[in-house]
Amino acid sequence: MSTSIRTSTLVLASAGALFSGFLAYAVYFDHKRRSDPEFRKALKRESRREARALKEEAEAQGIQQKQAIKAAVQAAREEGFPTDVEDKEAYFMNEVGRGEALCQDGSVQIEAALCFYRALKVYPQPRELIHIYDKTVPKPIIDILAEMIATDPTIDVGPFGLGSGSDSGSATVDN
Fold it and tell me: Beta strands of the chain (E only): which ranges?
């Protein structure tokens, strides 16, 4: 029985020593961070370097997203759109349904916006549909849709474009 007590005592002592060592390191690091000017400068430099890298990565992703949006719009235009009234109606309902389903998923925002774009292309009054989208579609997808509309000069959305309620802004396309 004394062996198990010694083992548990040894385990507890080891855990206490490890915890004390970690605590001492944290106190030392905090003291050094607060008092050493060179260490603080190095931390600031590292922080700036990380912020710059994040900014560059965000810019690269923005450029990539714009290219993906342009490619998606171009592919949709090349596929073409129905011309018959009944086909347009069925196409519209199908695309809006797919767009809503993809909005719920949230992982494929460009594809969801593309569905709404396709529906907008066959809708007889795009301005009205944009107002509906503005109230029902999540803002990130509205922003992507605004970029899609901006890249397609064939959509006449009038002088106000997207953005009356969602602060989407610069998607006005004047012909």
Answer: none
